[in-house]
Amino acid sequence: MPTLGCSVQNCVNNEGGFCGANTIIVDGEEAYTSSQTQCETYRPETLTNAFKAMTNTNFPGEIAQIFSSREEILITPEVECTAKNCFYNANNRCEARNIMIVENRENEMKNQCETFLDNH
């Protein structure tokens, strides 16, 4: 299972730089750069979104993470990916060992998969 970090601070799934979602979807079907991808699981941190996110929360991972060291990452979601031009995409699953979701440099209201690597 990949290790996923997230620096999108205002996401309801962000748990101190880790992703608390059970599964995330990285979108970018026609992407050729990181800035053309985005985490479709991102939701702004609001009370309504917190309740909605509960159906996709990795509760066992969150509990295990609380009782582990900061260096040991146990809260890791499954990563589905539509970025067919990414080197790490294997049958719509991300095969990268380390994945990083960051704020989009061009539009701070969006995010992007920094791990995207064009396979052409």
TrEMBL record:
Q: Which domain of life is it from?
A: Bacteria
Query: Per its UniProt record, what Pfam families does this chain match?
Result: DUF1540 (PF07561)
Q: Which residue numbers delimit the DUF1540 domain?
A: 5-42, 79-116
Q: Do you know which InterPro entries this protein is assigned to? A: DUF1540
- Record-given protein name: DUF1540 domain-containing protein
